[in-house]
Amino acid sequence: MSGGFKVAEVANSKNDEFYTPAYAITPLLRHLPPPYVDKPVSIWCPFDTEDSLFVKIFRLFGYQVTATHISGGFDFFKTEPLACDYIISNPPYSLKGDVLERLFSLGVPFAMLVGVVGLFESQRRFEMFRSHDFEIMYFNRRVAYFKDYQEQAPSLNPPFSSVYVCRGVLPQQIVFEEIAKR
Ligand SMILES: C[S@@+](CC[C@H](N)C(=O)[O-])C[C@H]1O[C@@H](n2cnc3c(N)ncnc32)[C@H](O)[C@@H]1O
User: Fold this and answer.
1) DSSP per-residue codes, the chain
2) Is any ligand 1 atom within 6 A of the Cβ of residue 149?
3) Cα of 122 from ligand 1 centre, angstroms
């Protein structure tokens, strides 16, 4: 893995511990194949503990979910990727370029919720996006993340929009979804 993105984004790493509300996760359900007993669908959430709402919601809807997180010794960049049908999460903001680069190289369909600010900036990202097929899910509202899984009180209303960068998930290159914030 190259470290180019990391160096540029390390200053933002204090913002990595923000968690995703349910309303920003459920729009993905419209675009995933339904899981059946004889045809299960597996999802790896590589930046998630068992508390993550990605994990809880996908399990609730019958998906086979494996959650891994750096706190359990599973560094996304240093460990073997799990076999799965989809890789879905909200990655650490300070590492989003490196995360997307690795995901494109793995070739497994993925959806990653990231801030749009700076997403396409830098020659390196320009090259990364230009050389891969990808899709974007764009929301009508900004996602307000939270800091505590118990309270789920929105503690950050970012001055930027969040989008899902996907590969092999959405039916067209850009999909607009309305979210109802609660
Ligand atoms: C923006 S938070 C989102 C957490 C969860 N996906 C959610 O949306 O609720 C990103 C998480 O990735 C974890 N993390 C940071 N670096 C990681 C790495 N190299 N491998 C796995 N997890 C990492 C952080 O500790 C943080 O909890």
Assistant:
1) ---HHHHHHGGGGGG---B--GGGTGGGGGGSPPPBTTB--EEEETT--TT-HHHHHHHHTT-EEEE--GGGT--TTTSPPPP-SEEEE---GGGHHHHHHHHHHH---EEEEEE-TTTT-SHHHHHHHHTS--EEEEESS---EES-TTT--EEE--SS-EEEEEESSSSSSEEEE-----
2) no
3) 23
